[in-house]
Amino acid sequence: MNSMDASLLIWLNGLSGNIKFLDDAMRLIASDYLMPLAFSLSMLGLWFSGKTSSQRLTYQITALIGISALSISNIVVWTINSLWNRPRPFLDHPDELNLLFYSPTDPSFPANPVAIGFAVAAAGWTVNRKFGLWLFTAASLYGFSRVYVGVFYPTDIVAGALVGIAVYRFTSYLRRALEPLVPMLVRLARGFSVG
Amino acid sequence: MSVNPNDVRNLFESHYFLFAFLSSLGTLQIAVTSSGIRGLWLTPYCRVTRWLGIFCIIMGILIFFGQPLFVDGPWAEGSVQAESTTREWGIASWDELAGARNVNDIHGGLDGVDQAFWFSLAVISAFAVSVFVGALSVKADTKEIRVDAKGDVTDGLTGLGHRSYFSNLPISMRNFRLEVRKFWRDGVRSADRWSLIQLIFGGSTE
């Protein structure tokens, strides 16, 4: 399994260095700033969307769950990281990889950026399939770019995606356990004319 | 990297705030035009406001990722190499631009918590700008909106479809004060069997 994982990574990373435009695009997409901001903005946009007040209420509750899932994903990834310190691929295969990114110092498994992307995408999917599909595509592209630049194994990406989706499901149940706190928060926001 | 990470962090914070502010403002404008929340529009015209929103997002991205071409920072000479510690202070060339922003947080890049803080601040600022400019834009478009708003008791974002934030806030606050107890009671009563709140407060709200 590990050798398959490494082979796939080396093959995908081997695509780099041939087309400069593609390398540059992957560096931009893999950046710590572009995609995470896009995911956060998608939840901001969701909060203010909706044509009727009931639709808006659904969107706002989903946005709150999505943002909570994003935060909880970080905690889950951090916990897994502290249990298993999987070295980054460029440490295991220094001569076989073309590193196009800085060398992260935290553990590789699971991919934190992908977990937050998939948590937000799962939230988007529940309110609008098309919107969710765009977000899932963006999160997948983000994951692919991180493999392409040589900082994650493919299994880190898959695990990150599973963590993100699972955390979103868990957060949905958590919301039910805390009912009616979340609608109450939205109602409070409406009192301040922001909900 | 031969520079102090705190200097790099300060630089990143100001740049990231501008990026997040412009992108948030743009996203907000696109969302409020699609849902008809006129009280937050930057102009009285839907299409113009939406294009302005798209423009803000594009400008945010271009400024943030283009800044290394003009502003001195930790992206010169060596930014095409992976390791951010090998870089020197200066401006980036076109060839180095795509990787210029890829600086590890231990060398001055922003970690998740920093980004969450600056993003929240940027969203609040973008909302505040939309509130103030939206109030002017509603004032410029009074005739039609006043007719719509006559006798209207809607509040929150729905109320902002017809009013400025400042006219809408007292109505929203009043409605909230009037409804909050009933809203809570109804919420606890209708919560499903998973609800811990219902378990705790369920009996006292009957």
Offer a quick outline of the entry.
The complex is a heterodimer of chains A (about 200) and B (about 210). Chain A has about 200 residues and is mainly α.
Key structural traits:
heterodimer, A: 195 residues, Vanadium-containing Chloroperoxidase, domain 2, 9 helices, 74% helix, elongated, B: mainly alpha, 2 domains, two-stranded antiparallel ribbon, 8 helices, 62% helix
Count of beta strands of chain B: 2
User: Roughly what is the average pLDDT of chain B, rounded to an integer?
Assistant: 88
Query: Largest protein interface?
Result: A-B, 53 and 67 residues
How much of the sequence lies in strands of chain A comes to under 5%
Return Rg of chain A in Å. Answer: 18 Å
Order of helices and strands of chain A: HHHHHHHHH
| β-sheet strand percentage of chain B | under 5%
How much helical structure, as a percent, in the residues of chain A? over 70%
Tell me, what's the shape of chain B?
Answer: flat
Averaged pLDDT of chain A, please? 95
**So what's the oligomer here?**
heterodimer
What is the CATH class name of chain A?
A: Mainly Alpha
Helical stretch tally of chain B: 8
Strand order of the largest sheet of chain B: 1-2
Query: Main sheet of chain A, how many strands, which sense, barrel?
Result: none
Identify low-pLDDT runs of chain A: none
Rg of chain B is 24 Å
What does the secondary structure layout of this molecule look like, with pairings?
The complex is a heterodimer of chains A (about 200) and B (about 210).
Chain A: H1 2-14, H2 20-30, H3 34-48, H4 53-83, H5 89-92, H6 112-127, H7 129-148, H8 154-177, H9 181-191
Helix pairs in contact in A: 2-7, 3-4, 3-6, 4-6, 4-8, 6-7, 6-8
Chain B: H1 5-34, H2 46-66, E1 73-76, E2 88-90, H3 97-100, H4 112-140, H5 142-149, H6 156-159, H7 165-190, H8 196-201
Helix pairs in contact in B: 1-2, 1-4
